[in-house]
Amino acid sequence: MASVKASTPAALLVLTLLSGCAGVLPVKQTESGPKVVESGPAEEETQADPAESSGGVFLPQQAYDAEGKKIPYVPAPNPYTEQPAPVPPAAQAAFADAMALMEDGDLRMARKGFWAMTKDFPELSGPWVKLAELAEQRKKPEKAREYYQKALEVNPANVNAYLKQAVFERRQGEFARARDAYLAALKTWNDFPEAHLNLAILYDLYMNRPEEAQPHYEAYDFLTGGSDPKVADWLIEIRRRTGIETSFIDNPPPEPEVPAEQGAEGEAVSADATGGGSPETEEQG
């Protein structure tokens, strides 16, 4: 995220939106925080190519040491929030003004403000994301698609722009494009919890592909430490539907096998011990 310090909640919100760091989360909602993307799992018939990738290569994996103990998983950092480039104060002010116009319903002037920012601050992707949102409101999906693409050209690490793009495509009924946007976000950041969750819901709710949804529900649950009981319930429900109980993420190593000869010797000794005495006792008798 941008390294400029914000002294007030309003200033922090401007920085967050400007740099595109506002995530699309499925949990608690606040003015500057997470927002629900999808509503929850259900079944709906949609034709899809079963050979298409589910993005399984992007799943986290629980590792174990030589003794079979879990190695604590350390998620990769968000590459977008790790970017150190500061946001100029003039850009913060311009963005705040355009956002205020947008919130007041003056979409024409808001659009002009964001357009001016793309000229004055071409290194920022946030204005392009807002232009895409405005284009969708104006019923211009092709323009919205163009502006989301431009935002990602300006900053390919803007994982939140991928999420917003995916939600837009889902609303357009373009489920394959939405899936591709989520997968692009995960390619950029494998450990993006919200991308995993929203991809899972897209597969499950909109594409009727629960087998491909299940790994990503599990990935979200794993990356968030099982903190969302609703998702835990969804996991239980989808496992009933798919019949897949084996974890896609946490598979402990098998117990070491006892060599066959050693096992046979143990059985022979055990038989002798229960047969009325040791061989030495029998010889002495």
From TrEMBL:
InterPro entries, per the entry: HAT, TPR-like_helical_dom_sf, TPR_rpt
Species the sequence originates in: Marinobacter pelagius
One of the GO BP terms on file: RNA processing
Protein name, UniProt field: Tetratricopeptide repeat-containing protein
Each TPR repeat, start to end: 125-158
Residues spanning the signal sequence: 1-22
Domain of life: Bacteria
SUPFAM superfamilies in UniProt: TPR-like
